[in-house]
Amino acid sequence: MKRILLIVVLLVSLLTVPALADGGTAPKEIYTVDDLLAVASDPSGSYILMADIDMNGVAWPAITFTGTFNGNHHMILNLNNAQVSTETRVTYDGNRKTYDTHFAALFAILDHATVRDLRLINMDNTHTFEGDCFLGTIAGFASESTIENCEISGTVRLDVTGKMFGVGGVIGFGNCVVKDCTADVTLINIDLDKDHRDEQFLGGVCGAGYPDIDGCTVNLAGYISDHGYVHSGGLVGMYIVYPQRFSRNGYIKNNKLDGFITFFEDNSDRRAYCEARCGEIMDWQFSDSGNVYHFTRDERRTYTVNLLPHECETPDYNDVTVDPSCENPGYTAHICKTCGYTYRDSYVLPKHTLSETYDVIKEATLTETGIGEFTCTACGAKIRQELPMLSPTPTPTPEPTIAPTATPVATESVAAAPSDTTAEKDQAKDNSKIIPIICGILILASAVLLVRIIIHAKRMKRR
Ligand SMILES: [Zn+2]
Ligand SMILES: [Zn+2]
Questions:
Q1: pLDDT of residue 328
Q2: Which ligand is nearest to the CA of 313?
Q3: Residue 357 C-alpha to ligand 1 middle, in angstroms?
Q4: Per residue in 154-206, pLDDT tens?
Q5: How far is the CA of 339 from the centre of ligand 1 (A)?
Q6: DSSP per-residue codes, 120-137
Q7: Under a CB-based contact definition with an 8 Å cutoff, are residues 73 and 117 in contact?
Q8: Domains in the chain, please, with CATH?
Q9: Which of 1, 89, 110, 321 is 20 to 30 A removed from 96 (C-alpha atoms)?
Q10: pTM for the whole thing?
Q11: Measured in angstroms, how far is the CA atom of residue 29 from the centroid of ligand 2?
C-alpha cells in the first residue's frame, strides 16, 4: 500500500514539474534562427529569447501571433525580409469606409498578444505593394495587444498602389498598449498611383488607430509622397477609435518625440494633416499629459520628385566602422561629406571578449559536442559556448622493417604515451586492451605448435 502511495506521489510531482506557479507552462527558449522561425508553427505559444539573433537575409513569414514573446533584453538584428501577409484585417479611414488590408512586420498581425523586452535592431521593412497595406516594426496590425519595453531601430518603407495604406514606427494600424518603448525610425511612404485620391497614414508609433502610448521615446525621420490625403503625426497619423463601438478611454502620456516629417500632399482638396502628436484626431476620447515634442512639419509643394532621406546632389561618403561591444552591435556609418546626412549598415551582433580558459560544463566526446563556460574579459559575463567534438587520433602505421615479434611492447608504449586530449587517452585505453590479447593468442599458438613439434619429433624417434 505504501509503495503504491509513493508511486502516485512520484507521478504527480513529475507531472507538475514543467508547470509554473502561475499555472502556465514554461516558455519555449529561442537560441537560433531556426528556433525563431519555429514560432510560425505555434503562433499562440509563449516564447523567451535566449540569445541575440542575426536575421540578415532570412525570409521571415507573416505571422498572426496570439501568444507571448519575451525578448529577455536580447536583440533580433537585421530583420530585412519580412513577408507581407496574405491574411487580411479590416481597417477603416476617417469616413469609416472599410478596407481589407495586408500587413508586414516582425508580427504581421498581433491579436491579444504580448511582446516585451525585445531589441529589434536595424530592421528594414521595405516593400512595393499593390493593394491596401500597412507596415510596422513590431506589428503591422495590432488588436488588444501589449508592446512593452522594446527598443526598435530601422527603416520602414512602403511604395504602394492602393486606396488605404501607411507606415508606423511600432505598429502600422490598430489598437494596442505601447509602453516604455524607444523607436529610432525612418519611415518612408510613396504613393505610386497618381490618379487615385487615397488615404495615407504615418506615425512615429502608429500609422492609424487607437493606441495607448505611455513613456515612449521616439526619434522620427518621416517622408511622405502622396497624391491623396495625408494623415501624419510624430506619434500617431490618425487617432480614431478602432474598432467601431470600441469603448475604452485611451491615453497619450509621458512620451518624448524628436523628429520631423517631410511630405507633400498632391491634392486640390488639401488638408495636409501633420502634427507632433496626432495628425488628425477623429475621436477625442483620450487623456494627454506629460509629453515633450521637438517636431518639424516640413511640407513641400513640388509633387514630381518623391521625397527620400538623402536629397544631396553630390553625395560623397566618409565611412566609419564601429566595432561591436558586449551590449551593442557593430556597424558601418556612412557620413555624407557634402551635407552631413548619415546612414548605417553592415550591422553585426554584439560580441563579448572571451577568456582563453574555460570551465567544462559538459565534456566533448568523439560523438558529441560539449559545453564550456567562458568569462568575458570586458564585462565579466559568463558565456557558454559549444565545444567541438573530439577528433580520433590517427592509428600509427607500423614500420615495415621491424619484425612482428618485436612490436608488441613498443606499440604499447607508443599508445600509452601521455596525450593531451581525452580522445587520445580513449584510443590508448582501447589499444592497451587489445594488444595483450593478441600477444597472448600468439604465445599460446606458438606453445601449442612447439608441443606438437616435440611430440611429432618423439614419435619419429620411436620409429
Ligand atoms: Zn549629402
Ligand atoms: Zn562582455
A1: 95
A2: 1
A3: 48
A4: 999 999 999 999 999 999 999 999 999 999 999 999 999 998 999 999 999 99
A5: 4
A6: EEEEEEEEEEESSEEE-S
A7: yes
A8: 22-309 (2.160.20), 315-351 (no CATH), 408-462 (no CATH)
A9: 110
A10: 0.78
A11: 22
